């Protein structure tokens, strides 16, 4: 049993729910529980896609500064591995993932959101990487994932200044993908995730891996990753079902088994 994180599964959509009142501060225990939930969601056959959600009031206001403030350099050298592990484990979920952001997604909370495939924000949400105001820098992937998402210049602006951005600026710079009324953002995220229930999960996994690995390497290596993933899908039942259905019935009518 976990204290601060729950994995709830309904109709093929898994919700990883943060629940550490009042602000979902990301202490070491919560980070470990997020890693465990991510691995469980990835392994479960009844989960087709994953929503990351912090509740109606706030997504996550950042790392637990009180916990970190007393750490020595040696202690942080050890803890920094955990700090990156929980976002790595979220990013490693081989299924489509979406964050539903309400309230604040700051510091480690923003970094957590960056680890999913897409992000939906409430219209009153605030996002940012304010670590510089503590005399440090993002340590859970922010300097890397943010720059890859919005470009190095915009990432440097946010990281250098520590300023917050509202949902509409976040949408304009590509930090989030959709903005919805606060009361609707979770339902919209679930709706996005639900479209993958019954889908070709092996092809979805291959597509995610090709994109994620491809942006880390040069173009020719990325094309080779794509070639291997593409060719490998010709060994799957889903590829047979998809192509047979297309020839016989037209597009969009195939039934997939995930094999």
List its traits.
single chain; 259 residues; alpha/beta; 2-enoyl-CoA Hydratase, Chain A, domain 1; Lyase 2-enoyl-coa Hydratase, Chain  A, domain 2; 2 domains; 6-stranded mixed β-sheet; 3-stranded mixed β-sheet; 48% helix; lipid metabolism; EC 4.2.1.17; isomerase activity; Enoyl-CoA_hydra_C; enoyl-CoA hydratase
What does this protein look like?
The protein has helices at 28-43, 65-69, 73-91, 108-114, 142-150, 152-161, 167-173, 185-194, 201-214, 219-232, 237-249, and strands at 5-10, 13-18, 49-53, 97-101, 104-106, 118-122, 126-128, 164-166, 178-180. The protein is α/β, with parallel strands linked by helices and 259 residues long. Helix 1 packs parallel to helix 3 (73-91), helix 4 crosses helix 5 and helix 9 (201-214) runs antiparallel to helix 10. The longest helix has 19 residues, at 73-91. The mean pLDDT is 95. Helix 1 links the parallel strand 2 (13-18) and strand 3. The chain folds into 2 domains: 5-194, 2-enoyl-CoA Hydratase, Chain A, domain 1, CATH 3.90.226.10; 201-249, Lyase 2-enoyl-coa Hydratase, Chain  A, domain 2 (Orthogonal Bundle).
What is this structure's SSE topology?
Blueprint: E1 5-10, E2 13-18, H1 28-43, E3 49-53, H2 65-69, H3 73-91, E4 97-101, E5 104-106, H4 108-114, E6 118-122, E7 126-128, H5 142-150, H6 152-161, E8 164-166, H7 167-173, E9 178-180, H8 185-194, H9 201-214, H10 219-232, H11 237-249
Parallel strand pairs: 2-3, 3-4, 4-6, 5-7, 6-9
Antiparallel strand pairs: 1-2, 7-8
Helix pairs in contact: 1-3, 4-5, 5-6, 9-10
Keywords: Isomerase, Lipid metabolism, Lyase
GO molecular function: enoyl-CoA hydratase activity; isomerase activity
EC number: 4.2.1.17
């Amino acid at each position: 049993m976990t204290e601060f994180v729950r994995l709830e599964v309904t109709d093929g959509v898994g919700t990883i729910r943060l629940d550490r009142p009042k602000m979902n501060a990301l202490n070491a225990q919560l980070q470990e529980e997020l890693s465990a939930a991510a691995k469980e969601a990835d392994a479960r056959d009844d989960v087709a896609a994953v929503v990351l959600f912090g509740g109606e009031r706030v997504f996550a206001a950042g790392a637990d500064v009180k916990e970190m403030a007393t750490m020595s350099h040696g202690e942080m050298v050890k803890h920094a591995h955990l700090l990156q592990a929980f976002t790595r484990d979220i990013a490693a979920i081989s299924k489509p993932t979406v964050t539903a952001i309400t309230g604040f997604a700051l510091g480690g909370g923003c970094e957590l959101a960056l680890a999913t495939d897409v992000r939906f924000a409430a219209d009153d949400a605030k996002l940012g990487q304010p670590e510089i105001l503590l005399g440090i820098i993002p340590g859970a992937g922010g300097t890397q994932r943010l720059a890859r998402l919005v470009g190095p210049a915009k990432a440097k602006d946010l990281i250098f200044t520590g300023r917050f951005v509202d949902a509409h600026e976040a949408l304009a710079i590509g930090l989030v993908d959709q903005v919805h009324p606060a009361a609707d953002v979770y339902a919209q995220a679930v709706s996005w995730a639900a479209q993958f229930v019954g889908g070709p999960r092996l092809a979805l996994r291959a597509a995610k891996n090709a994109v994620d690995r491809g942006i880390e390497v040069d173009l020719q290596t990325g094309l080779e990753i794509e070639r291997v993933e593409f060719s490998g899908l010709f060994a799957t039942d889903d590829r047979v079902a998809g192509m047979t259905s297309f020839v016989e019935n037209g597009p969009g009518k195939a039934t997939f088994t995930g094999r």
